[in-house]
Amino acid sequence: MRKVDAEVWAGLVMLAVLLAIGLPVLTGVVSPELPRLWWSLTYVVTVVALVVAAAHSEPGHPPVSGRVALGVATVGAWVLVGSAPAGFLSILLVVVAALAVYLVPFGLVLAIVGLNTALLVLAWAWADGNGPWWEVVAAAALYLFLQIVSALSVLSLVREQRLRRELTAAHVELRAATALLGESARTAERLRISRDLHDTVGHSLTVLSLELEAARHREGEGAQAHVVRAGAVARELLGDVRAAVDELRTRPTDLREALEQVVHDIPGLEVRLEVAGDVEVGEEESAALVRAVQEIVTNTLRHAQARTLSVTVARDGEGCTVLQAQDDGRGAARVQPGHGLQGLVERFEALGGEVRFDGQGPAGFAVVARVPAA
């Protein structure tokens, strides 16, 4: 059973509050200035618009549908509160102000707060039985304070969420760089060993060849001395070769270990990684796959609003290594690769491979990257 997080519970509680504050008018306890049927229809449209706006609130990348829903909810709240200013209906304006932080610039949020407060002053001033003017001003100041506090609280939350995503993305990039740096260090070490082996073996073989050549042209004890020295050189050479082979036998980190290092324990995102046992790639292909997973995870954190990401690496029937990634986020109607995704495409094309993106599937955003076997 899928766990319901705190944001979903908060949304359900807010929906219950929105439904409750309209009950006095809907049940006839409070009479609105508008006909009750029209007021009820406006109330339903406003609540639905608030739910739609909340469902499409995406900090930094709000869709047009979310902004339109916010506009409808704002106008609807003004009509509802203006025609029935009694009770707790003014809470609608506080909700609108808090939700606007997700969808519009903060300057426009302050403008909405100002208009909401002006509407409250006018509505209460024209209503009967609200007491002297200073009580109206005090009540309006209270709701002004509630709107500003709510807006600032949501703004702080949005900034914290953005910083957390950026920090997580930076950690993923650091892990990928660490994995690639480790592989580069092992490659450099193998190169050093091969050079040392070449120098040692080359020198020893030259000495061995000279000793044997000298022994071939001598007889008796003179030849025997050269043979003894040649044997000593051969034994020393054999020891050097064995030492070099022992160092080269150290198994470098394989692709699975490198990818697990990149996707391990990412806050807010569950990554399910599967690497087939028959996958064998060279250093360049391994670097491309590690960078691909890093870019996919980073984009998922920043844009997808996903909870899970599945990544599989396997071989296909044509001898290529295929990376497939699928998240359960919101997808994208039109894929416009940024610098990261474009760099990913160029990296795989340079190796003779290809990358495909699909954001219109039934669930989330999908990436398929293919590279020929080394």
TrEMBL record:
Keywords: Kinase, Membrane, Transferase, Transmembrane, Transmembrane helix, Two-component regulatory system. One of its GO terms (cellular component) is membrane. SUPFAM superfamilies: ATPase domain of HSP90 chaperone/DNA topoisomerase II/histidine kinase. It holds the Pfam family HisKA_3. CDD domains: HATPase_UhpB-NarQ-NarX-like. Residues 189-251 form the Signal transduction histidine kinase subgroup 3 dimerisation and phosphoacceptor domain. GO terms for molecular function: phosphorelay sensor kinase activity; protein dimerization activity. InterPro entries: HATPase_C_sf, Sensor_HK_TwoCompSys, Sig_transdc_His_kin_sub3_dim/P. The chain crosses the membrane at residues 6-30, 37-55, 75-101, 108-127, 133-158. This is Sensor histidine kinase.
